[in-house]
């Protein structure tokens, strides 16, 4: 927080939302490894971008998707067990993979999604406690994130990048129904959404 507050419009030359993601090298030992990371122009990424991360081979990196849903029949006990297993799975995956993706894509009438914020916060702090957080990027694939506030809170809880897939799919569906301009491509929809999020985050 600055006083007076930074004006994101008049002072945009000194503001950036670019996000380096991936394993971090020791800052006390300068080396070329410190720049061997992926740079995102914006923490909000599109569905194709996320698919690219899932299948990346950049610097021989690999990605691991962690399901953050659990069977509805298991109730509260299933919720607590799943939250613990997410943390343990992330810890094990950090030994072999460089990008961890927390995903609620499998949510449905039979599977309940754990709040992406809760799953992210628990995973982030578990990896810190096990000294593995700097070894991986944490990416969130969530239907829950839609508004600027949602994105900001996820970033504050440790997300390196966020794919709000439901918001993007909804916008594409509205285009197909003629509710919004039918000339908009998926890329234009994403760029408009990402720009709106970027403006909101900067403010």
Give the oligomeric state of the chains in this entry, treating copies of one chain as homo and distinct chains as hetero. Answer: single chain
- How would a textbook summarize the main sheet? 4 strands, parallel
> Looking at the structure, what is the overall shape?
globular
Strand order of the largest sheet: 3-5-7-8
Structure description:
By secondary structure, this protein is an alpha/beta fold. It has helices at residues 47-54, 75-93, 116-129, 148-156, 165-176, 186-202; strands at residues 19-21, 38-40, 63-67, 69-71, 99-103, 111-113, 137-141, 161-163. It has a four-stranded parallel β-sheet with strand order 3-5-7-8, sandwiched between helices. It has a two-stranded antiparallel sheet with strand order 1-2. Strands 4-6 form a two-stranded antiparallel ribbon. The longest helix has 19 residues, at 75-93. The model has no long low-confidence stretch (mean pLDDT 93). InterPro entries: Aldolase_TIM (IPR013785), ET-N_metabolism_enzyme (IPR050711), Glu_synth_centr_N (IPR006982). This is Putative glutamate synthase 1. One of its GO terms (molecular function) is metal ion binding. One of its GO terms (biological process) is glutamate biosynthetic process.
What structural keywords apply?
single chain, 203 residues, alpha/beta, TIM Barrel, 4-stranded parallel beta sheet, 39% helix, globular, FMN
């Amino acid at each position: 927080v600055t006083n007076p507050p930074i004006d994101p419009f008049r002072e945009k030359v000194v503001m950036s939302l670019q996000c380096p993601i991936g394993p971090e090298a020791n800052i006390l030992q300068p080396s070329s490894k410190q720049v061997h990371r992926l740079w995102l122009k914006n923490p909000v990424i599109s569905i194709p971008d996320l698919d690219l991360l899932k299948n990346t081979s950049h610097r021989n990196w690999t990605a691991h998707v962690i399901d953050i849903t659990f069977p509805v029949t298991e109730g509260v006990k299933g919720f607590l067990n799943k939250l613990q297993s997410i943390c343990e799975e992330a810890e094990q995956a950090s030994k072999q993979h460089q990008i961890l993706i927390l995903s609620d894509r499998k949510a449905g009438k039979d599977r309940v999604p754990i709040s992406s914020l809760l799953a992210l916060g628990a995973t982030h702090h578990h990896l810190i406690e096990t000294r593995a957080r700097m070894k991986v990027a944490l990416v969130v694939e969530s239907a829950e994130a839609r508004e600027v506030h949602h994105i900001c809170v996820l970033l504050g809880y440790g997300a390196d990048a966020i794919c709000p897939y439901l918001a993007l799919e909804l916008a594409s569906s509205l285009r197909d129904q003629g509710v919004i301009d039918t000339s908009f491509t998926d890329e234009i929809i994403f760029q408009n959404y990402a720009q709106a999020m970027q403006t909101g985050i900067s403010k």
